[in-house]
Design brief:
Blueprint (H helix, E strand, L loop, with lengths): L1 H17 L4 H4 L17 E2 L4 E2 L8 H9 L20 H14 L9
Antiparallel strand pairs: 1-2
Length: 111
């Protein structure tokens, strides 16, 4: 019985020690980005109001993919499917995706 108690105490101590890491250690590692691209750490690009993985204004690779598909607004230099200038209703489409994921309205765009 003492052995079992000792194992339980040891396990509790080890688990507690694992939870005392400084917050900085629990955050994502720094991500190197090519020159001229914005570093993103989360799912949402606050600056442009779209998911980061789809933000052609921050990623030249994503922009190239949209251009290859023919989805590009030449007048505003962004994907047509993300051009809130030509198609203001698209902003609500992206906001709805954010709301579905987080249950709140997205932060105001910084652009």
């Amino acid at each position: 019985m003492r052995f079992l108690f000792a194992v339980l105490v040891f396990t509790a101590v080890v688990m507690q020690a694992g939870c005392t890491k400084p917050a900085a250690e629990n955050q994502k590692a720094e991500v190197e980005t090519p020159a001229g691209e914005t570093k993103h750490d989360g799912w949402w690009c606050v600056e442009h109001g779209v998911p980061e993985g789809e933000c052609a204004l921050c990623s030249t690779k994503v922009a190239a993919d949209f251009k290859k598909k023919g989805d590009w607004c030449k007048e505003h230099d962004r994907p047509e499917s993300q051009c809130f200038i030509c198609h203001p209703e698209l902003e609500q489409k992206f906001a709805a995706r954010y709301e579905a994921k987080y249950g709140t309205k997205p932060p105001a765009r910084e652009e």
